């Protein structure tokens, strides 16, 4: 019986490894695939929620997308990856409304707005990426077409978390249902500007921001290991939080809004 339990644990570990993340590039420049080195977690969390490393940089998936919004560059990936496995084990289909993000939980639904032409679409996260500086989301060909960015390859966008899918059990078979976030325009918003494994580094950044008049906290997260997330208070309205994110993004690329 002990052997069976040990074998089961090994099988779970191997299966989580199959969902390894791939570094991807958009059509401009050419795309290449690199294996993402999985970091050993300290807590029992899904493989897609564990810290991972690509190109020498460590990424820390966030536990919840509630209140999440971010602006940056979107790209898309297509034929070379069509039919391959995504990070959560699904088969990538460039004609579906899915997307890749570096840190959002899998099955998060996002409203993606093209700030260059006003077009928008809704996508579901099922992959990791894009691992190109300045890019925040990788869309499918279908998503790129809806946003009017297919030929250009990239666009300046805003992404906003709408909700997530959760497993349901309905008698004979399991399914999934969409759980929307209630009134996502109001909440207790913060702008995250950094995440550190070392408490001292987080404290130095926090003190620096406090000295500049920002109400800043260092929040300890234990998901996938101890991590100190430095976050600046942004008020109760999403519009105000977005304005603060915009001001801080120049100094902290990758800053994003989150709610607690």
Description:
It is globular and about 50 Å long. It contains 4 helices and 16 strands. The strands form 4 sheets. The protein has a 6-stranded mixed barrel with strand order 6-10-7-9-8-11. With 260 residues, it is of the alpha+beta class. The chain folds into 2 domains: 2-39 and 46-164, RlpA-like domain (Barwin-like endoglucanases, Beta Barrel), CATH 2.40.40; 186-259, 2-Layer Sandwich (Alpha-Beta Plaits), CATH 3.30.70.1070. The model is unreliable at 1-23, 25-36 and 168-174 (pLDDT under 50).
Topology overview:
Blueprint: H1 2-18, E1 22-23, E2 34-35, E3 37-38, E4 52-54, E5 57-59, E6 69-76, E7 98-100, E8 108-114, E9 120-127, E10 135-139, H2 141-147, E11 154-170, E12 173-180, E13 186-196, H3 199-211, E14 216-221, E15 227-237, H4 238-249, E16 256-259
Parallel strand pairs: 6-10, 7-9
Antiparallel strand pairs: 1-2, 3-4, 4-5, 6-11, 7-10, 8-9, 8-11, 11-12, 13-15, 13-16, 14-15
GO molecular function, one term: lyase activity
Keywords: Cell wall biogenesis/degradation, Lipoprotein, Lyase, Signal
Protein name: Septum-associated rare lipoprotein A
